[in-house]
Design a protein that fits this description.
This protein has about 180 residues and is of the alpha/beta class. The chain has two domains: about 70 residues, NAD(P)-binding Rossmann-like Domain (Rossmann fold, 3-Layer(aba) Sandwich), CATH 3.40.50.720; about 90 residues, no CATH class. About 45% of the residues lie in helices and about 10% in strands. A four-stranded parallel β-sheet has the order 3-2-1-4. It is globular.
């Protein structure tokens, strides 16, 4: 049995990885920034290690004795102080359909979205709360994203998961984690 260190264990990918590693008989130490994630990590069979990726003093201690490291942490926030994520228009419609919610027939014109996000961004500076629409999110969603998995398929035997199956699994996980109701 080996010991692995895991980042992102409280997230979608990291949580699944934690379960698989524990099921395979490995001990897993998982980086945790909050008490709430400590409990989630422990419930999946991991040992929470308090710290963050930015804590350069804590990481060497956390990694001591580990034979493997899995970095599954990601910041998917669309708020400038947090980072950026990827969205696609078709995906928005599929999410709306999966949640039983209406989505707009067409995209909001970029100039309208950009003006709206600037107002919300200004308000967020006063309230110190993340806005619903951020300048980074507006800029990202105003451009078409083109992705190509051919190299991953060719060199890593990557197999794409159909979007509807991926979405169904993600929404089920979000409901189980209390992030969505219904």
């Amino acid at each position: 049995m080996s010991t692995a260190f895991l980042t992102g264990a409280s997230g979608f990918l990291g949580g699944h990885l934690l379960r698989e590693l524990v099921a395979a008989g490995h001990r897993v130490r998982a980086l945790s920034r909050w008490p709430e994630t400590d409990a989630a990590i422990a419930a999946l069979g991991g040992t929470p290690v308090r710290g963050s990726l930015a804590d350069t003093d804590a990481l060497p201690r956390a990694l001591d004795g580990c034979e493997a490291v899995f970095h599954a942490a990601a910041d998917t926030s669309l708020w400038r102080p947090h980072a950026a994520a990827q969205l696609a228009t078709d995906f928005v419609h599929r999410v709306g359909a999966a949640l039983g919610r209406r989505t707009p027939r067409g995209a909001t014109p970029a100039w309208v979205l950009m003006a709206y996000d600037r107002v919300l961004d200004g308000l967020s500076r006063l309230t110190r709360r993340e806005p619903d629409v951020t300048p980074e999110g507006a800029a990202l969603t105003s451009h078409r994203l083109h992705v190509d998995s051919s190299r991953a398929k060719r060199e890593l035997d990557y197999v794409e998961t159909p979007l509807n199956a991926l979405l169904a699994g993600t929404l089920a996980w979000m409901r189980a984690e209390g992030m969505l109701s219904g």
